[in-house]
Amino acid sequence: ALTRRVTCPDGNTATNAACCVLFPIVADIQANMFDGGACGDGAHAALRLSFHDAIGWSNSNPSFGNGADGSIFIFQNVELNFHANTGIDSAVSNETPFIQALNGSISTADFIQLAAAVSLTNCPGTVRPTFMLGRKDATFPAPDGTVPEPFHTVDTILARMGDAGFSPAEVVALLASHSIAGADNIDPNLVGLPFDSTPSTFDTQFFVETQLRGTTFPGTGGNQGEVEAPLHGEMRLQSDSELARDSRTACLWQANVNNQAHMAQTFQAAFAKMQILGQDPSQLIDCSEVMPIPQPFTGRAMLPAGLTHNDVEQACASTPFPTLPTAPGPVTSVAAIPQS
Ligand code: HEM
Ligand SMILES: [Ca+2]
Ligand SMILES: [Ca+2]
After folding, report:
1. Distance from residue 72's CA to the centre of ligand 2 (Å)
2. Does the keyword Oxidoreductase apply (predicted)?
């Protein structure tokens, strides 16, 4: 059947007129927050911000925040003081002029999740994200303790994420985000330390590289939440290391290795769930049609140059680690993510 499309004031067409408001906002985000559509520092920051807002939610305790409600922006004077939100202040400042310019056209909660969804479309390897419109803004801040820390145990992380509604499989799915991510605040002397060798590509290298034996720190050792990485210049979070090796999550982790479609699809589904935590789905409008088409991707997983299968710390008991080619050439170090 043909669906009648409406023409929006800016010339875009939509099946639902309520979505028209989003086209100029998406264009503004792409041009002015993401440097014309890059999967760089700005995109990474917007993605992390969406998680730290949404995860303020508990199925067991109604005072544990209100989910994807913009509280991290609206109550930034409270939430940015929490240790787990270290570094989130820069994501909040990136978004401040955009949120101030909204003039009520969409909620702050919607903007935070919209920017994150758009960020994903700039990173080759993603499945086109969905976007639901109509979140209600926060009336109270999330308390301290909703956001997992890299020095938390797997028990603690799975319990916290489970209380927010995520299974271990969904936790692993969501952590594909760390394929397009890095740390500015773990090593006190270094910024832009990527979690995998391809921080501008949503590929499965993150799941490969976190399974390799750690041998080096990008800077000093002894930083809370950091363990040794397999490549010079790379940051490995203790939490990612332990999730890759825990019997509850190791096979889920390994299942992403060189399985781009599985990784991208499970992430897309878990991310869609995360983006509406605490909101009433019946009150939301599906505006997925405003999402840009993601950048194309045709890569495959590789062992980094100089490393072999002997460097894999096999943790999944039931299935061997996939056989991967080794990238050609000399051993290289991973470059820091340029700061915008
Ligand atoms: C479940 C446990 C998680 C833990 C313990 C964790 C921890 C961290 C830490 C410590 C950093 C580095 C922050 C810094 O030093 O600047 C980071 C970065 C990041 N995280 Fe997570 N994270 C988790 C889950 C997630 C999820 C679910 C998402 C998104 C769906 C996410 C997206 C990101 C992104 C995009 C960055 C990079 C930010 C940037 O480069 O500006 N993380 N995470
Ligand atoms: Ca929130
Ligand atoms: Ca990557």
Report:
1. 6
2. yes
